[in-house]
Amino acid sequence: MDVTSIGWLTLPLAILGGAIRVSTPFIFVSIGELITEKSGRINLGLEGTLMLGAMAGYGVSYLSGSPWLGLLAAGLAGTAFGLLHGLLCSVKRVNDTAIGISLIVLGTGLAFFFGKPLIEPKAPALPSIFLGFWSSVPQVRAALDVNALFFVGILLAFAVYVFLNRTGWGLMLRTVGDSEDAARALGFPVLRVRILATMAGGFLAGIGGSFLSLSYPGSWSEGLSSGQGIMAVALVIFARWRSINALGASLLFGGAGALGPALQGVGVTGYYYLFNAAPYILTLAIMAASTSRAAPFADAPGELKLHR
Amino acid sequence: MTAPQVELLNMTKSFGANLALDNVSLLIRSGTVHALLGENGAGKSTLVKCLVGFYHPENGHIQVNGREHRLNSPKDADALGIGMVYQHFTLVPSMTVAQNLVVSGARLPAYVNWQSELKRLTEVTRKLPFHVPLDVRVSQLSAGEKQKAEIVKQLYLGRKLLILDEPTSVLTPAEADEVLGYVRSLTRAGDLSAVLISHKFHEVRRYADDVTVLRRGASVRTGAVTDLSDDALAEAMIGEPVSKAVQLAPRLAPKANIVLSIKDVSVNGDNGLPAVKDLSLEVREGEIAGIAGVSGNGQLELVETLMGQRDRSGTIAVSGVAFTGTRREIAHLGVYGLPQEPLKNACIDRMSLAENLALRNFDRAPLCRGIAMNYGALAEQAEKLVKQFRVKAPGLTASMSALSGGNVQRAVLARELTQNVRLLIASNPTFGLDFVACEETYRRIVEARNGGAAVLLISEDLDELLGLVDRILVMSGGRIVHEVSADRADKRVIGKYMAGMKAA
């Protein structure tokens, strides 16, 4: 076989590489949202948190010269936003959905405002792990140049699974999210658990945001997110509130998101925008399919309601 | 620690202007079952909620084994070994029974090794006379199993005073005997004291040692069960000598006309699994057919299907005409219903009483003229119905949610039964109602039948069914598994079918 021309394999390789890259923020945001929703609250504001994280991460990385410090800053910015959401929703008769939407606007606005001077300069990016060393085919080498955060994300999915099923705190979180009455009868601090869960969700969404700006090649721009924070909410429902499923769903969405660029890479230039819309079409299709009345929702947190 | 003696002294608690508890004292002797009797709203729940630290009384003391304790939260009650089995279960639905047990422990474990934990739990639960599956999600348990799981939880937590809030409302007679019999044996052995909230005399008589009757927040009678007759208890409960239960009109020979015909109907539950399976039944003119069964065996889904609230397969016909539950069909075929929890299922709580009374006919003359409502006629109709059915309300324009449970039911009865009823579907119509409202509901249902309507009565209360119906069908696992005419019905046989112990 010719080592430089791999023919039809180019497309799946490009999709694989793209899937890994595109799915990473999805993994973090959806698992963060999953933790929040397991506590019985929905945080739609993660889109804003994502943008804020991307900006904060990039800015701190640029100023300090360390992308890891940037990552931490992104996480902390997300945590602060989670805390804000958690506190606001703890006030009686405040609706978590409405707060979430306003936080989208606030987060994006803050990110744009503080991010203006960051559009030009170049910040150090997060390192990637080069897994394509065994091959001399450039496409393989490109696809397997994987950012370290991707592996952290995979570990995270399994860690959250263990947390929710095998630790006392995980069971407490599920109790609070599934039946407030039961949680109160058991003497659990319902509000505190919810606020902490929203903070954890914000932290992870912030990390996911920093991946957008700090992974190769790394740049900050206002069009960075394109709705991934919102789609993560749909992902959680699609994943039936299970973290391992959320990982798989993120990969699926990542693959769909990589379809457009990958096709362009092999020379299919027609319908470019249509293929780029693949993840959104997938979102619609999945939501329509997975919210049918007949489908079982055994893991859906009982306290998750549109109105309270 | 063995069974404690618990004493409540001069408990007073009010909610706003409403005095829920008025200087109530209660002595639960060590190793006994103490029954609390009373109508709805008599203060039973409020009293025990003070005992588990949920409510804080304005006045009064709680003594355990002679020492005074302040119960500020359920945790304080925990520490004293006081636990309650609520009517609305406090198990977490999406978690398994084992997970529920672990999460309710006094100390949350950092990490759970399910293998060894399950072994330990199996060991603990093996001593019980009834079986509860540990690795099944609570949402998939029947109401009876949930009840047992709640009790297992309390015993697992080492509770020494167990409060049971109307525990048998969701159990078959055999299950009730199993559960209460076990509690009784534990109290006899001196390992446990118990409070049993109930409104069934035979239950109190069978399982309790002492009884206290509450009425309007006050303790009106207390003593050993053996010292008090049923009549004395009933009198204490409602405050006046009572006439004997429902006076049934003589049963009529059923007529030949089939009004409701259900054929091979299957319905899915909320969880997407089949809840009603290939069910067929018929109800004739002038008969009350009763469906008995433990809740969660498809009755709710069947009723919702009959009222047009659920998708289904199979055919439903009323008086020979296919019925899908549209407004036109309902008016044409005369299909009316008394759902359970009428405020939620038959009323719009923020609309006024008069408007709620018009929900069935607001779109017909004389209540509407063209597209405009005739509010004069609406008020006139409401006034008439309120008088006829003795609905007590702050006024015709008062919002429905301001009415008491019994009066909501009266309003629904008034609205549904003054139409031209050919088929009446009643689902647990007396659930949560007091004595007087119950009797009235029974009387109206029997009147509807005597007027020639076909009645399908779904109830979890076997005594209620046996007193009212002409024919009993038992529903279990989404199917009709047994059918018998009322005069030949045997409670024990029916109970066995309810429990799914006999195949169809």
Q: Can you offer a commentary on this structure?
A:
The complex is a heterodimer of chains A (308) and B (504). Helix content of chain A is 69%, strand content 2%. With 308 residues, chain A is an all-alpha fold. Chain A has one domain (7-161, 194-287). The longest helix of chain A is centred in the first third of the chain and has 29 residues, at 10-38. Chain B is globular and about 70 Å long. The two termini of chain B are 48 Å apart. Chain B has 2 domains: 6-238, Rossmann fold, CATH 3.40.50; 258-334 and 420-498, P-loop containing nucleotide triphosphate hydrolases (Rossmann fold), CATH 3.40.50. Chain B has 504 residues and is an alpha/beta fold. Chain B contains 17 helices and 22 strands. In chain B, the strands form 5 sheets. In chain B, strands 6-7-8-3-9-10 form a 6-stranded mixed beta sheet, with helices on both faces. In chain B, helix 13 packs across helix 14. In chain B, helix 6 links the parallel strand 7 and strand 8. Classes of the chains: A mainly alpha (308), B alpha/beta (504).
Helices and strands in order:
The complex is a heterodimer of chains A (308) and B (504).
Chain A lengths: L9 H29 L7 H19 L2 H24 L5 H20 L12 E3 L7 H6 L1 E3 H19 L1 H11 L1 H6 L4 H25 L13 H11 L4 H23 L6 H5 L1 H13 L18
Antiparallel strand pairs in A: 1-2
Helix pairs in contact in A: 1-6, 1-9, 1-10, 1-11, 2-3, 2-4, 2-9, 2-10, 3-4, 3-9, 6-7, 6-11, 7-9, 10-11, 10-13, 11-13
Chain B lengths: L5 E10 L2 E11 L4 E5 L6 H8 L7 E6 L2 E3 L4 H6 L2 E4 L11 H7 L10 H13 L16 H14 L4 E5 L7 H16 L4 E6 L2 H7 L2 E6 L2 E7 L5 H9 L19 E11 L5 E11 L3 E5 L6 H8 L6 E6 L2 E2 L4 H7 L1 E4 L3 H4 L7 H5 L10 E2 L2 E2 L1 H15 L15 H13 L5 E5 L7 H16 L3 E5 L3 H7 L2 E6 L2 E7 L5 H8 L6
Parallel strand pairs in B: 3-8, 3-9, 6-7, 7-8, 13-20, 13-21, 16-19, 19-20
Antiparallel strand pairs in B: 1-2, 1-4, 4-5, 9-10, 11-12, 11-14, 14-15, 17-18, 21-22
Helix pairs in contact in B: 13-14, 14-15
